[in-house]
Amino acid sequence: MTALQSPLALLGRILLAFLFVPAGFGKIAGFSGSVGYATAMGLPLPTLGVAAALVIELVGGLMLLVGFGTRIAALALALFTVVAAIFFHAYWALPADQAMMQQLMFNKNMGITGGLLAFAAFGAGSWSVDGRHKAA
After folding, report:
1. Which one, of 4, 1, 119, lies nearest residue 66 by Cα?
2. pLDDT tens across 72-84, in order?
3. Any idea where the domains of the chain sit in the sequence?
4. DSSP secondary structure of 65-122
């Protein structure tokens, strides 16, 4: 292990959690608006989908942040991120003049998924709840 692994893993967890945790709180604050958006996008069972999304974003994001159950949280968030990309950034189904931004958003989601899969594969690092349990 290099001297940078633990601080970089912590920074990576913070940055990824910074995406998911506020999004989860945003869905709580604007639940009906989120359901309306999900309905407009054709998400099946939009109320259930938004409720599940906010739980995954909040719980998974907080677990990732502190490094508790990191591998499972990262896998759940990765799956969620891929599903969100498919439902909300389906650039392939849009006219060319509208597709570019959605393709960028889709690709962004795939990049985020890559980072999450790295945490699923390698864990949270030693500066985490998981790391403290491993050392004990």
Report:
1. 119
2. 999 999 999 999 9
3. 7-129
4. HHTSSHHHHHHHHHHHHHHHHHHH--GGGS-HHHHHHHHHHHHHHHHHHHHHHHHHHH
